[in-house]
Amino acid sequence: MIRVAIIGCGVIGRIHARAIAEHPEFEVVAAVDAVPANSLPGLETYPTLPDALRAREIDLVVICTPSGTHLDLARQAVAAGKHVVIEKPLDVDVARAAEFAGLAAQAAGAGQMITVISQHRFDPASAAVARAVHGGRFGKPTSAVASVAWWRDQDYYDSGDWRGTWQLDGGGALMNQGVHTADLLCWFLGRPVEVQASARLLAHERVEVEDTVAATVVFESGAIAVLLATTAAYPGLTARIQVHGTEGSAIIDNDRLEYFHAKHSAEDHRPGGVTGGAVTGNQAEAEVGLAHTPAGPRGDDDFVLGHRRQYDDVAHAVSTGARPGVTIGDALLSLAFVRAVYVSAALGERILVADVLEGKYRDVRLDVRAE
Ligand SMILES: NC(=O)c1ccc[n+]([C@@H]2O[C@H](COP(=O)([O-])OP(=O)(O)OC[C@H]3O[C@@H](n4cnc5c(N)ncnc54)[C@H](O)[C@@H]3O)[C@@H](O)[C@H]2O)c1
Questions:
Q1: Given 27, 69, 331, 338, which is the most exposed site by the fewest CB atoms within 10 A?
Q2: CA atoms within 13 A on the CB side of 281
Q3: Could you tell me the CATH superfamily of domain 2-118+307-327?
Q4: pLDDT in tens, 273-329
Q5: Class of 120-295 per CATH?
Q6: Do residues 40 and 8 make contact, with C-beta atoms less than 8 angstroms apart?
């Protein structure tokens, strides 16, 4: 049994507790929260991580606190020699995250498993698309269209002082809600190299960050993507990614494989390609599309299932010493990508992700125009 302490007993801390309770290889033995009233059912709750470490034998520390606090806590856990799971995003500050990546590499060398939650990488639909793209079945990747068209009401932003702040949320619709989709784009298409974006605050008040942002992105391979993230699309639609290549395309909608076609099926003789249909001509992916993810709105059970899938990966990495499915390097790249979008929107310029990674824009003020 891997003995777990969960830090942060809020919305996502409770999902982790449920996902771990269902998992035969983990046991939650302690909760940590800075607010005494916040705890997890049936668990002793400690005010700080050192208090929990003194009181209990702990193998794995899971960090579920506001985004801007992730790495201070992760450093404490790494220094104590523990394995660490960090909720997304890795942090809100690229320089701090880059420094942590160095520390994490050393700790991994000493046998510590350190990973970041990006549960959608473990959805059967995303895994099928990644396999197809990386295995060359879509030919040369050419483009993608990604959108997270969600709705969050004002009460959501008012529900915690940290929400909608640059310091602790690190951004709005893209950093908080859309970072999963940004991460999947990087996973499917590789390194984003340049970004041009616009961001606005259109449907909320008392927040510093954007609720709507759109960007065009060029990847190292030359592939081009369009990305939209918004929490101002009432009543809340889906998170959707289309990936296209010279020999195949796929659409994932709300974690479900809605369309998949790779060349060399019986229908491919048509010169204009195959249009319409759903998951055509590829039986294995048709099964992924139909069987694994129910259609409809996502709820707490979907969260638990997604996290539970990533905990399978965590268990494997801890017990075998294998690299986890999501590395600190992966999460750092996604963070730099999101920051590049914000810098571009603030300066009205095309921004190189490499410059963001090197700390060039660390002190730029990321003001968002409200309209
Ligand atoms: N993977 C996902 O799909 C997903 C979904 C929701 C949230 N998240 C991420 O999880 C994190 C938390 O989000 P949330 O919605 O659960 O927030 P929340 O406000 O509901 O909960 C945060 C909890 O952390 C506690 N806390 C704050 N600072 C602390 C500290 N220094 N030490 C100990 N406890 C502290 C708070 O008291 C609170 O109970 C964020 O980084 C968010 O981006 C991820």
A1: 27
A2: 18
A3: NAD(P)-binding Rossmann-like Domain (3.40.50.720)
A4: 444 445 555 555 655 655 555 556 667 888 899 999 999 999 999 999 999 999 999
A5: alpha beta
A6: no
> Domain residue spans in the chain?
2-118+307-327, 120-295
The atom of ligand 1 lying closest to the CA of 303 is 3
8 C-alpha vs ligand 1 centroid, how far in Å?
5
- Give the residue whose CA is nearest to atom 21 of ligand 1: 10
Residue whose token pair is 């309209």:
371
What's the start-to-end Cα distance of the chain, in Å?
52
CA gap 58, 56 in Å, rounded: 6
Ligand 1 centroid from CA 89, angstroms: 11
Residues in the chain: 371
Strand partners, 369: 200
Query: Ligand 1: which of 11, 35, 254 to mutate, judged by most atoms within 8 Å of the beta carbon?
Result: 11
Q: Per residue in 146-169, pLDDT tens?
A: 999 999 999 999 999 999 999 999
| C-alpha–C-alpha distance, residues 236 and 105, integer Å | 39
Structure tokens at 310: 């990533």
SS3 content of the chain, % helix, strand, coil (to 5): 35, 25, 40
Instruction: Please report the atom of ligand 1 found closest to the CA of residue 162.
Output: 19
The residue written with tokens 């041009």 in the block is 196
